[in-house]
Amino acid sequence: MSVPAAPPGQPRKAATAAWIGSALEYYDFFIYGSAAALIFPTVFFDESDPATATLLSLATFGVAYAARPIGALFLGHFGDRLGRKKIMVFTLILMGLSTFLIGCLPTRDQVGTLAPVLLVVCRVLQGISAAGEQASANSMTLEHAPEDRRGFFTSFTLSGTQGGQLLATLVFIPIAALPEDQLLSWGWRVPFWMSIAVAVAGYVIRRTLDETPAFTRQQTASEGVAKLPLAVLMREHWADVLRVIAGAMVASVSTIFTVWGLAYGTSESVGLSRSSMLWVGALANLVALAAIPLWATLSDRVGRRPVFLIGAAGSAVMMFVYLWAVSTGAYPLVLVLGIVTFGVVYSAANGIWPSFYGEMFSTKVRLSGMALGTQIGFAVAGFAVTFAAQIAGPDGDDWFAVALFTAALCVPPVLAALTARETHKVPTELLGVRATDAPIDRERVAA
């Protein structure tokens, strides 16, 4: 029995849909991070002192990460039961609507404590959406991709994520330059209102995608799709789920760089302007757009593990260098080291985790395994910002403690990579297959 291949052009179509969809979705997700660092302490927590207001605002940023494991349970289940395509469309619509609603929220001056409560509700919906977005897009591209280029094609999802983060940063640069009264009254709402386009664009972009050959084959196999993917996942892949959880903690580098680093750089102790710090993130993301597919292509040749290790271990070191540069207030140094840290070094881990994690699981539980594992790890990364704000001390300027904390969070990803199997040359049909089942699948692949 021959293995059906993806229709001509479908791998590129799936990768393009993953890129555009992730860019749109994570534009929504990351404009919240910029607002949480620069705007929300005043708009939603203005009765608190500045340090406490910032801490509370950054905590709402982490709320979405706490919601993501819950969303992963449901969206992972339905993605492995109903298919990757349906989840990809649903997540974009949910993200677009919840982000638009944030832009419509009343402030604390208008409705009191109800304002931050409504903010948290919308942020939870963002988190649920994000829980299924990357896992479904990664599964779609991996299962469509040629076997010798899985790393390259799946990296488009993360390139899209960086593109969305770049777009979010660029949108906030002119917004942050508005006069204070305009910024705090209506200016901050504009980036959130723009997200309504996500709900429309998401349907148009992804509705024409074909379901993946691997999932279609699983549906028609004698065993069919798993009725309870989570039960199969915990029975057959529990060790890999733990590896993905540990590996996903490397995202702490991203959240601390983009959120805490932004708040620290614009604080009174450093004194850099909002616009200048936003440009650091924008240019770093621009470099990442080029670096991610290059690192992914390298992983197709030398393996996932060594490239991931470069990113995880290198990021632990570079965060000390970058945060030190911020503490000096020397902007050219901050700009160069920010680009190297986030745009180049971190991209080594960030660009290949979609293939690295996805190749750990079989088709019947791939979306569940990636969604659950990454979202638990990402939850740690989301609240890393809140802990960083506490670790930084009452004046929020202990950058060395924050860098040490970030480096400690890079240790589990390093251990996960060291204990993982190398899978870049394993045929797609054999990914995540137990040894007792492998002979049957090998005959099918060879046919």
Automatic annotation (TrEMBL):
CDD domains per record: MFS_ShiA_like
Gene3D superfamilies from the UniProt entry: MFS general substrate transporter like domains
Transmembrane spans: 26-45, 51-75, 87-108, 190-209, 244-264, 276-295, 307-325, 331-349, 370-393, 399-418
Cell location: Cell membrane
Domain Major facilitator superfamily (MFS) profile positions: 14-425
Keywords: Cell membrane, Membrane, Transmembrane, Transmembrane helix, Transport
Membrane-protein topology: Multi-pass membrane protein
PANTHER family per UniProt: SHIKIMATE TRANSPORTER
Name this polypeptide is given: MFS transporter
Organism of derivation: Streptomyces neyagawaensis
